[in-house]
Design brief:
This protein is α/β, with parallel strands linked by helices. The chain has a single domain, classed as 3-Layer(aba) Sandwich (Rossmann fold), CATH 3.40.50. 32% of the residues lie in helices and 26% in strands. Strands 3-2-1-4-5-7-6 form a seven-stranded mixed sheet, sandwiched between helices. Helix 2 links the parallel strand 1 and strand 2. Helix 1 runs parallel beside helix 2 and helix 2 packs parallel to helix 3. The radius of gyration is 16 Å and the shape is globular. The relative contact order is 0.16.
Length: 215
Amino acid sequence: MWMWRPPGVYRPQEDTWLLAGALAQAGVPSGASVLDACTGTGVLGVVAGLAGAGEVTAVDISRRAVASARINGWVRGVALKALRGDFVSLVGRSRFDLVLSNPPYVPSVPGVPKGAARAWDAGEKGRAVLDRLCTALPSLLTDRGMALIVHSGLCDGDLTLNRLRDGGLKASVVARRTVPFGPVLRRRSRWLRDNGYLAPGQDREELVVIRADVA
């Protein structure tokens, strides 16, 4: 699926399509309210809208990503509302039948990421955004809500499952795929090996999609 993408906005790739496939398997309830958290180009929100969702809310901290999502929703005829900010700001204000997220998850040196790196850098353990998302989800989902989250096995899928379950959600892995390193991991492979994230000679990572449902 073609998406308009200005410089600095995350390009849809293997993790995006793995999550889109998991969404197709799960199905989108007709008229469902959808949150696409850390939206990037808005592709996941667009996919949900084309599959029958009602209003789609797409959130990102990047101005360019918000503009991209807004334009791509308009081009595809999806009722997509793009907001700049943090998905946590919606807690207590909105609930959704479906939450989708391909958040930043690449382990990185401590510090606040800047520029395009905000789309992938996620702190020393790769969980700076994931942990906040796991905490927020029970308050973002409706009584019959579902969430689908994709991330790398490098940042511990079991920990994601446990955090979601600790929040009262049912959680399981619904899709896996092993893929060659992309450009970011190739550039960072030495640092990742030196810090124990990679085995010697490792050049592939496992991606996982985790589904969470309100119990």
